Amino acid sequence: SGNYYDNALNQVDVIEVEKGKVIKIEFSAFDVETAGVSCPWDHLSLVDGDGTVLLNKACGVKQPFTICSRTHEVYFTFITDCVYGRPGWKAVWSSQTECSAAPPLT
């Protein structure tokens, strides 16, 4: 399976930068198992520290995109099932004073 992500993940990671800054998250690759628009199996969600949903249950294959937070922390939740893996996603994040986003095309 090479660099495919693990099955049965239920992983929450928190990215935090200094208060007063925002977080720029640049996805260079995104390929997560898809099963229709609701992404019931494998998906990535990003929620801002203030509760704003930045990315809601994303799956499928997407071109590179950028997400900006509104606060200094972002929660990544990556859910996978136990059947098919895909290459997954790759992102870099940085602390910014201001940030302009290019959200994923639907």
Beta-strand residue percentage:
over 45%
What share of residues is helical? Answer: under 10%
- H/E series: EEEEEEEE
Cα end-to-end separation: 28 Å
How would you describe the overall organization of this protein?
This protein is mainly beta. 0% of the residues lie in helices and 49% in strands. The protein contains no helices and 8 strands. The chain has a 4-stranded antiparallel beta sheet with strand order 1-7-3-4, with no helix packed on it. Strands 2, 5, 6 and 8 form a 4-stranded antiparallel beta sheet that branches. A hairpin with a 4-residue loop joins β3 (43-48) and β4. The protein is globular and about 40 Å long.
Task: List the keywords.
8 strands, 4-stranded antiparallel β-sheet, globular, mainly beta, single chain, 106 residues
What does this entry show, briefly?
With 106 residues, the protein is mainly beta.
What's the topology here?
Layout (H helix, E strand, L loop, with lengths): L9 E7 L5 E11 L10 E6 L4 E6 L1 E2 L3 E4 L4 E7 L8 E9 L10
Antiparallel strand pairs: 1-7, 2-5, 2-6, 2-8, 3-4, 3-7
